[in-house]
Amino acid sequence: MARKPSKPRNHAYSILQSYEICGRIVAKLLFGGGNRSAKRIVIQATINGCEIIMKTRTAFLLVACFFVPTLIAPTLRAQLVPRTVLVEEGTNWGCPPCAMYNPGLESFLNQHEGSIIHLAYHPYWPSASDPMYLNDISDNDGRVVNYYGISGVPAVTFNGCNNFEPAYTPQLEATFDSCVSIMSPVSITVSRVVSGSTVAVHVAIHPVADLSSYTKLYLRVTAVEAFVPGPGPNGEARYIHVMRTMMPNYTGTKVRLGMADTSFDFSYNLNSSYNAANMYEIAFLQNDGDHNVLQAATDQPKIILTPQSNSELVQRTSSTSADFPFTLRSTFLNAISATVKFYPTSRTVWPITVNGAALSGSQSIPLPGNQAQPLDVNVTIGSGTYMSEILAVSTVQFGDTLLTSYPIKVISPAVKVAFVDVSND
């Protein structure tokens, strides 16, 4: 680890919600169609060894086993919203250990695309000639040195937790798991409008719980460049997710929130040294009482997979096949190529077609810039009681692997079904 010179002191698919029965978390809301009140919200649980799939607001439990537990606990409690894990890193182009550990960190980040956001600051040591440091001295030193008190790079924090050297993948994974399992009381969306060399950034905040008890809450917004080409003195071929400027500065904007939605607007100028095509923004809410990051969001271009309105992601069909219509959208300005692949989560694997073509391994599909197109998945019923898989669509852009996915399940007509009337559902 490269230490700063001494001087006098001046956290393969998103879990949307968790549920607990008799005080023990046993169920997970794996995916939802449309908004939270839509009919296609699905819960998957295991109770006494039985797999149970609940579709809320249609009042049934589908039990993929040959008995139903005699007692389902009376309390089934939903918790808040998913928390995106913010990984902040201190690094520097003159830091040899950074060159050693950053490739492993990048691989880890790619494995958790969609659940994690990475932001890299470049403080003044070990090389004060680092151009990414010189681009914004105040904000780089402000976050790394003044706010977190980091004294050696590379160092990472997960959602504002204690910093550590990203040398060991097991430590990264364990820290991520502990952070992503904690739900959030707020959601954030970020959007941008570019006019010439000016970028207008809009941040919308939607509390799902009362935040009035947070008296030291700050909204921090930063402009980020996807990567800056190297090599630098430490030999790194590129430097990823580089903080370019913070709005209004690294201190951020103090906010007082309750239950009401609110929004904030910021802007910054595209410096001539930036690659405008690689720029995006990150916003996060941080409690300065304990440095905990409540939520983070980004407007970085992505691919979005959405079930169509008539799509049932868990199907029990009496016909010979089951159809899963999706819409796949890219927010990239230019046309890109994506890869469709299925990852089995059951022992049984039945034949699958994507847009009429048999899927064998993976399938490449073109995606027009900033457009949506249908993605039709068809499963032919085979032997066995059911088939479940993860439908994943990925693309590699600027060296980052972007991934969007949904679980699907097809259940044979031979499986017994238990219908349960859920009161007030």
Provide structural commentary.
With 425 residues, this protein is mainly beta. Helix content is 10%, strand content 45%. It has 4 helices and 29 strands. The protein has a 6-stranded antiparallel beta sheet, with no helix packed on it. Strands 14, 15, 16, 18 and 19 form a 5-stranded antiparallel beta sheet that branches. It is globular, with a radius of gyration of 23 Å.
Which properties best describe this structure?
single chain, 425 residues, mainly beta, 6-stranded antiparallel sheet, 5-stranded antiparallel sheet, 4 helices, 29 strands, globular
How are the elements arranged and paired?
Elements: E1 2-3, E2 17-21, E3 24-31, E4 42-47, E5 50-55, E6 60-63, E7 77-78, E8 85-90, H1 96-111, E9 116-121, H2 131-135, H3 137-147, E10 152-153, E11 155-158, H4 169-180, E12 186-195, E13 198-207, E14 217-229, E15 238-247, E16 253-255, E17 262-269, E18 279-287, E19 292-298, E20 303-307, E21 314-316, E22 321-330, E23 336-344, E24 352-354, E25 357-358, E26 362-367, E27 372-380, E28 386-397, E29 400-411
Parallel strand pairs: 8-9, 21-29
Antiparallel strand pairs: 1-10, 2-3, 2-7, 3-4, 4-5, 5-6, 8-11, 12-13, 13-17, 14-15, 14-16, 14-18, 18-19, 20-22, 22-27, 23-26, 23-28, 24-25, 24-27, 28-29
